[in-house]
Amino acid sequence: MLKGDISDESDIDQVNLVLQGDVTQDHFSRVSVADLDNNGNMEIVVSTSKLGTGGDGYLFATERNEILWWVDVDEKWTFTLGYPIEAQPSLGNVDSNKRKEVVFGLTNGTLFVLNISADGRDVSVKWTYTVDEKYSPTYGDNIRGELGYTAIADIDFDGKNEIIFADSQPGIPDWDADLYVLEKLKGDAL
After folding, report:
1. Is the pTM of this model over 0.85?
2. Contact 172, 140 (CB under 8 A)
3. pLDDT digits (tens, 9 = 90+) for 59-115
4. CB 103 within 8 A of CB 150
5. E strands of the chain, at which residues?
6. How many Cα neighbours within 13 Å face the side chain of 18?
7. Are the C-beta atoms of residues 94 and 103 closer than 8 Å to each other?
């Protein structure tokens, strides 16, 4: 979840990040850390969503820069969605460029992979994947599983990272969850 460069207790420092804008209700936030654009500085990527109804979510990335004797926290980019993001994003390389991608799932059953621009100041949707609906006797209908925690790893040791996640439906005892492993194949979008 967290990847950083702390090697000694004296390296530990604190940086406060404040949600800005029209924040009219409580939020929950999840954090991941990695050098997304390979500039030698770690980005802090935060997924945050409103609690309760209308739980729209968004992601933002900041980078801490030391300038002479003070520290500046620079907002790099933001990405807004219409659904809650219930887990921290995974940060890793899932394609052939040297920059890492941002991977996360939504409660509507959609997985997002975001591409970081070369200068690290912009983000765009690289691709999405939506899980199929499944029938639930308890619910009495077909519904999609919610996606939360994701992982990025080369689980088959072929030199390419896979994206691993599962679907869930909390509160539905007969939900048959599936484990998904996605890999980009040569020439394919995924």
Report:
1. no
2. no
3. 888 887 666 655 667 788 889 887 888 788 999 999 878 889 999 998 899 999 999
4. yes
5. 27-34, 43-50, 57-67, 70-80, 90-92, 101-105, 110-116, 123-130, 134-136, 141-143, 146-153, 162-168, 179-183
6. 3
7. yes
